[in-house]
Amino acid sequence: MLWNLYAACFDLVAGLAPYQDMLDEVVAALDLRPGMRVLDAGCGTGALEARLAERHPGVEVVAVDASPAMLARARRRTWSASPRFVDGDIDGFLAKEKGQFDRVVSVSVIWALADPHRTIEHMTDHLAEGGRMVHATPRWRFRFDLLVVRHLQRARGVRAFLRALGLLPALAVAGLLNLALVLRVLSTAWRDRRRWQAEGLARLFSRPGLGPIAIRPTYAGQGFLVTCDKKATPLV
């Protein structure tokens, strides 16, 4: 229910300059080539899909999300070559999926998973040898207000600045909904802060066949970009 409400204002958040910068970093980290098959685990309203369609039209994208409202907004975008949108949670999708992916990606999803260890294991199983996972996820002590300030600082000209100021009430609502979602996750996983800390994320992704794990700041310092490859099995 909360995710469906969040869908109504999510595109405002995705339109913030720091979020757009993060998408650029995610796309660069994916290191895509034509013909690759990409899984977006938690696609939301399709912001990443729009960027991929613009810059890498030759890749196949499967985009999964558990929020019908998010997916409805994603499907309403104008697509030259539409991604395959799938309604459902990522664990359920991967349990049925038989194929593998050259890339697995998520943006602001790891923190919200019911069991991140299990889901990452499923993602690893469906990642092709030599494939790559890229995940952008917020850090502990996240500062939503800082993202808004950075966005205002990037506004060029008086009109752009005033237009950005006009979005503040809606962004405040988005921030409150985001906080409600975080509190819901914390109510069941208060002691498990791995998903919000660099050290914890490194442990979370440390599993046979993955590595090396690279973690660096993104999202105006309010998140982490996690990148790791699946090692190819040497031929005997």
What topology emerges from the helices and strands here?
Elements: H1 2-14, H2 17-30, E1 37-41, H3 47-55, E2 60-65, H4 68-75, E3 84-87, H5 90-96, E4 101-107, H6 116-125, E5 127-138, H7 144-154, H8 158-166, H9 168-189, H10 198-204, E6 210-218, E7 223-230
Helix pairs in contact: 1-4, 1-9, 5-6
Describe this protein's structure.
Helix 3 links the parallel strand 1 and strand 2. The protein starts with a helix and ends in a 6-residue tail after the last strand. Helix 1 runs parallel beside helix 4, helix 1 packs across helix 9 and helix 5 runs parallel beside helix 6. The model has no long low-confidence stretch (mean pLDDT 87). The longest helix has 22 residues. It has 236 residues and is an alpha/beta fold.
Summarize the structure.
The chain has helices at 2-14, 17-30, 47-55, 68-75, 90-96, 116-125, 144-154, 158-166, 168-189, 198-204; strands at residues 37-41, 60-65, 84-87, 101-107, 127-138, 210-218, 223-230. The protein has 236 residues and is α/β, with parallel strands linked by helices.
Biggest sheet overview: 7 strands, mixed
Gyration radius, in Å: 17 Å
Number of H/I helices: 10
Overall mean pLDDT score? 87
State the total count of DSSP E strands.
7
Question: What are the low-pLDDT stretches, counting only 5+ consecutive residues below 50?
Answer: none
Q: Briefly note the structural class of the backbone.
A: alpha/beta
Strand order of the largest sheet: 3-2-1-4-5-7-6
Q: Helix and strand succession? A: HHEHEHEHEHEHHHHEE
The shape, in one word, is globular
Give the end-to-end Cα distance, rounded to a whole number of Å. 51 Å
